[in-house]
Amino acid sequence: MVIGLGPGREEEMTPRARQALARAEVIVGYRTYIDLIASLVAGREVVVTGMTGEVARCREAVARAAAGARVAVISSGDPGVYGMAGLILEILAGHPRGKEIAVSIIPGVTAATAAAATLGAPLMHDFAVISLSDRLTPWEVIARRLEFAAAADFVLVLYNPRSHGRPDHLHRARDIILQYRQPSTPVGVVRNAGREGEEAWVRDLATFLELPVDMVSTVIIGNSQTRVQDGRLVTPRGYRL
Amino acid sequence: MVIGLGPGREEEMTPRARQALARAEVIVGYRTYIDLIASLVAGREVVVTGMTGEVARCREAVARAAAGARVAVISSGDPGVYGMAGLILEILAGHPRGKEIAVSIIPGVTAATAAAATLGAPLMHDFAVISLSDRLTPWEVIARRLEFAAAADFVLVLYNPRSHGRPDHLHRARDIILQYRQPSTPVGVVRNAGREGEEAWVRDLATFLELPVDMVSTVIIGNSQTRVQDGRLVTPRGYRL
């Protein structure tokens, strides 16, 4: 099973995810995510690795499942959005006993919509989700997607907006977007969306780089119609009021 | 409160959404969504309108909240993705007592990730969410977004892909995308994702129009790297295996 925990608070985790976790014999995940659900994994075997150990972690999960264990691989948010679902399926496809292993993927509330709910309603119209991490994707591909999404007036949701390894990606992304959007375009940033320690800010394209955006932040950049109302981001769907 | 029910099955609704529903005195929503949660609304006042009565429904919700009732407006999936969250905030902003009314938006599992989980892991890379409904958006805007998202190799998620009022939009969308993607590009369709009566198919751009795509379907079109493995859609994130 590949389980989406949702943003982090237990009250945002679906009953289906919770039940699947309760049935698992072995729980595999990144340390930070295991810690989010410490009370739910008590008494079970836990396999943890660092953030960049995804391949080793998923291989171990598949090996344990092939040996007969009921294994749960956990991702925060939704496991199918930059999470572990794809890697598990890829490893299964290359495993001699992969076809015998039943796998279910259990969705969760993803950071895009958790952050949007905190900010107001910025995703009421078409939106594009882009990761700024170039660990697995060339920057040229990311830059092209930013440019085309900005040009077509999508609301933009940026995952992995900044880390120690890529301190200037967000700045470069902002400069690309500014070719197509006004500096006054509303921008929302949420750190730890839907988790303990959640913080949120509403700024604009001209000023949001001053905010403490980091790896656990989600950035939402409005389209040409997005506005700020009583401190909240709202992208009108187009109803006549 | 604006509450996201998730895809429809109770086991996919977050505890936070369920608790908010339990506390509400008045529940406002489209008939189909009220029916999805019939057992959870028993004993409370329910305000229903048809699918196109969104503005009247939300005005009624705000009027009832202004009169002191604890009101829950429900949307299936996530209420911030083509749901009621934005309209509620817009109506509140124009209401004389809008600033006095506390509003919380409770996220849910959206159709994009519920459908993705059923199909495999198609959303492991950057994706764009586009509604094909031109009820509130000119077709030219939709077509431009389809074209730019296809050109920049986003995975595409299509909401509202087909209805009686727009039987040929999906065909036109497919033709736009075919300018940039191979006819063999994998396409997944899920009807009633995460609900009773769920059905799913995996085809390709050349053939998926044969499927019974309708208003309650979600269509996911792979990027240039998406492949079919053991009947599931997988978009590689880029890990070396």
From TrEMBL, chains A, B:
GO terms for biological process: cobalamin biosynthetic process; methylation. InterPro entries: 4pyrrol_Mease (IPR000878), 4pyrrol_Methylase_sf (IPR035996), 4pyrrole_Mease_sub1 (IPR014777), 4pyrrole_Mease_sub2 (IPR014776), Cbl_synth_CobJ/CibH_dom (IPR006363), Precorrin_MeTrfase (IPR051810). It comes from the Bacteria. Keywords: Cobalamin biosynthesis, Methyltransferase, S-adenosyl-L-methionine, Transferase. Gene3D superfamilies: Cobalt-precorrin-4 Transmethylase, Domain 1, Methyltransferase, Cobalt-precorrin-4 Transmethylase, Domain 2. One of its GO terms (molecular function) is methyltransferase activity. This is Putative cobalt-factor III C(17)-methyltransferase. It comes from Neomoorella glycerini. The gene is cbiH.
